[in-house]
What we know:
By secondary structure, this protein is α+β, with helices and mostly antiparallel strands.
Amino acid sequence: MTGREKPAARYALCRPCGKRAYLTRKVARAAARAANRGPMQAYPCPNTPEGAQAMWHVGHMPQVVRQGLVGKDKWLKGRR
């Protein structure tokens, strides 16, 4: 990625989810920072087929994690 390229421009459409999908976690995290819409998290797509390269989505943490009812690690583990 060059210094002038926007990370949000490096995405594809995830067919099962209909969301933006990034090829790497690093690019997804850069897109989350570039969006500047509050604390956002890069997470692996739960609909990735077996044996395929994991795609990454960006989104806000769910309410239960923000309230501290479930830990971030436990929530992410359930999504992988």
